[in-house]
Amino acid sequence: MARSDLLISLVLAGKHSPDPRFRSTVEAIIAEERSKQHTALADQLSAALLNGVHKHAPQAATGSTVVGDLLYELAPERSLDDLVLPRLVRDELRRLIEEHLRGELLRSYGMAPRHRLLLVGPPGNGKTSVAHGLAHDLMVPLLVVRYEGLIGSYLGETASRLRKVFDYARQRACVLFLDEFDTVGKERGDVHETGEIKRVVSTLLLQMDQLPAHVVIVTATNHAELLDRAVWRRFETRLHLPPPKPSEAAEFLGRLFANFQLASGYKTATLSRQLSGATYSEIEDLFRDIARRAVLESPEPDFAKIVRERLAAWKQRVSPAPTKRRR
Question: How far is CA 232 from CA 126, 192, 202, 275, 314, in A?
């Protein structure tokens, strides 16, 4: 028999082993085969481990069949170097990346890279972009959980689907991203919640504990106060992403305009001073609005006039009223 058939036979024979090291070892082998672009073998090993079957054809959709409605798999295009981040946040992310790129050295000393990251902060300040940047710089796919497929209406359905998400992620080196993390990591003592949230959180904790180091799980929340206390303890790295300082907003705006050919020569200092309190997302939205008008009025747009008009419209935009989240 070929080596691949030997491996598959071994997985089929041992898939019910009570020793957790068997499963973690097979998942590491699958992740390594995927990193080598041995997709057919990785899919066959995955099918043998998850379903107890040997699929001879290269079933690229095996994983998608299990979690096709639960995940987006993306190839991120934005690096961490493209982001404007507080120095502490950037330094910690760089250290985490180094740990993974030099993981063999850590493992030779009986240690593993950190791979559980919690991002906290108000919306629009880079939490999702950090997940994309990490995946880009680690050169792995980004798996984004789709809550519309994850949250079920029947008893135990959400917990079952959550297990499928983690089963899929464990078999490849990747970044697994859960935005709005308080949806599934909510405090179990919340008197307004049913017993279902307790089952979901218990499943989440178990799956996070079993997650191998080659999967970097990144979670993001705008409401850290809603997270279960046991969930907090699972994260080796917890970072706060605040709104940009004036200098950071100016740097971000300058980068946007520097990469836009029609804005050649435009000085952003005056504009940046008028964006006090804006999030990165709001600044980028304004830039795109300006860029659209400039393109439509090309080849010789009156750029200063466009900026004044779009800034005036941007200042008149409707903003949401502040609300209080229920505990």
Answer: 21, 21, 13, 34, 38
> Could you tell me if residue 326 is inside a domain?
no
The DSSP element (H or E) to which 21 belongs, if any, is: helix 20-35
Are 185 and 253 part of one and the same domain?
no
**What is the helix (H) or strand (E) element at residue 177, kind and residue range?**
strand 174-178
| DSSP bridge pairs for 227 | 186
Q: Quote the CA–CA distance of 123 and 280 in Å, as a whole number.
A: 9
DSSP tag of 15: T
- Domain extent, residue 297, equals 246-315
**pLDDT one-digit tens code per residue, 142-175:** 999 988 888 887 778 888 999 999 998 988 899 9
Q: How far apart are CA 13 and CA 28, in angstroms?
A: 18
Question: 15 or 128: which carries more pLDDT confidence?
Answer: 128
CB within 8 A of 298, min separation 6: which ones? 262
